[in-house]
Design goal:
Blueprint (H helix, E strand, L loop, with lengths): L2 E11 L5 E5 L2 E6 L6 E10 L2 E11 L25 H18 L22 E7 L8 E4 L9 E2 L10 H14 L14 E8 L5 E7 L6 H12 L5 E6 L12 E3 L7 E5 L2 E5 L9 H15 L6 E5 L5 H6 L5 E6 L2 H13 L5 E5 L2 H4 L2 H7 L4 E4 L8 H10 L3 E6 L2 H11 L3 E9 L9 E8 L1
Parallel strand pairs: 3-5, 10-11, 15-16, 15-18, 16-17, 18-19
Antiparallel strand pairs: 1-2, 1-4, 2-3, 4-5, 6-7, 6-9, 7-8, 9-10, 11-12, 13-14, 19-21, 20-21
Amino acid sequence: MGKYIENVPLVDIHSAGKAVGRVNDKNIYINFGIPGEIVDINLDRKVRGFYSGNISNIQKPSPMRVQPFCKHFGTCGGCNWQHIDYSEQLLLKKQILENALKKYQIRVSVIDDVVPSEKRVYYRNKVEYAFASEGYKSGSALGFHPQDYRSQVINIEECWLQRQPSRKICEVFLKIAKKHKIPFYHYPDHSGLLRNLIIRTSTTGETLVIVGFCYEDSEMMPVFLEEISKQLPEINSLMYTILTSPEKGYADGDIISYNTSTGYLNERMGAIIYQINPKSFFQPNPDQAYNIYQKILELASFQGHELVYDLYTGAGTIACFLASQAGQIIGIEGSVDAIQDANQNASINRISNVHFICGDVLKTFTPDFVSTHGKPHIIILDPPRSGTLIEIKKTILLSLPDKIIYVSCNPLSLAFDLTMLTQGYHVVKVQPFDMFPHTHHLETLVLLERN
């Protein structure tokens, strides 16, 4: 136990979702606090120059503090804002965005209110569970990692992230694995057979499951998978992969179909149908993603002749959604699997005015690329959480699009990227969306127009 400190005022919210306490002019980052509260804390540790602490007593609670609805709150690493009223969550997310823009001195006249998620529970279309032979404060476990402890697993008995048949699948997996005495993953020495379980669902009612095994076992695996297939007919696609090392994730190796000839999910947004490869990224909250894509259409204000570059196009989800109103769209993406999906999505929707290029965006999107393919009217920029590299931003500025529409999943990297993009453009619109209720994460659309 660290140092005990009383009457710590919580004065702000950090970009990682922790409340900021002030003690002797030092910031302390505190789990499960709310700005405006006064709390007693245990000063936990100092990591990389930052102090963290945990609340031991609340002297003055916020009127926005509510009772969490999940029994695993506070231990599980997800949904870390369940203790905050949803209306206050939206205000705090907006504050995180404002803090990021202020940090990098980005001038914005107005930041719109955060668009709430229509679904506040069961909104995710993908979850990844982990197996452990020795769970967190339990025996064998199938569940999630506790916050800050990636080598431990909490046995999850309920989860509000994904609708059924998600929990039923977990329960049947546990029952069958224990029946056949299949060893769960042992983190200390990386032994065991069952390592993880990925469940993907779609709004069309389909379910795809991927089982992560640590090695090929010709005796146990067929017996296990066959019984899963029989007891869970609601799984449309049952697949598996072999995770050859602790550093490998389920998407790093081959994903093999066990009981399906398709091996993908069908998803729909408006009039567009998407086929989703097991490895491909698709927005985790599809209902809110639809609202975001509709807003992109509104901000683009297409006249029907525009040339659009869609950087980090992924499976072509945005490009296909916009295609009916644009002139031509060129999407660039580094993942071979994603580009295959993008081409397939264009084909099944009979979209002929999109062209997808497989290549690293940094190496592909260059001044020579722009000279060859033409000056864009609009650039859609949907980078990873880390943001966009300097050379890519240089090429964006050199290509002189009329508009840049930035789709961000990280306010800090967004604000950093805007420091360079605003050298030739000004911010016209900032519209945040809540993609992940009960967490600190935020999706933001920014419209920039040429000076």
